[in-house]
Amino acid sequence: MGSAEVFRDEDVPYASRTWAAGGIAELHVWPGEFHGFDGLAPQARLSRAMVETRHRWLDRMLDARAER
User: Where are the domains of the chain?
Assistant: First the structure.
């Protein structure tokens, strides 16, 4: 999520509740960015970094599931 995300104030407590309930989540706040910034400027350095971070997280989750 971007630091200018319109849902930021809802997303942070949601992630906190997920962790408190034993769920798995990561929360990244990308400086100066807004909702959907990766779709508007997909080639921007920060967009590419965000997408790569999201893909690494998904890979880890799928690998952990496969190990069960």
Answer: 8-67
Give the number of other CB atoms < 10 A from CB of residue 2: 20
Give the pLDDT confidence score for residue 6 in this predicted structure. Answer: 87
Handedness of CA 48, 50, 53, 59 (dihedral sign): negative
2 DSSP β-pair partners: 30
pTM: 0.80
Q: Give the sign of the dihedral formed by CA 49, CA 50, CA 54, CA 55.
A: negative
**CB-based contacts of 35-44 (< 8 A; 24+ apart in sequence):** 35/1, 35/2, 35/5, 35/6, 35/7, 37/2
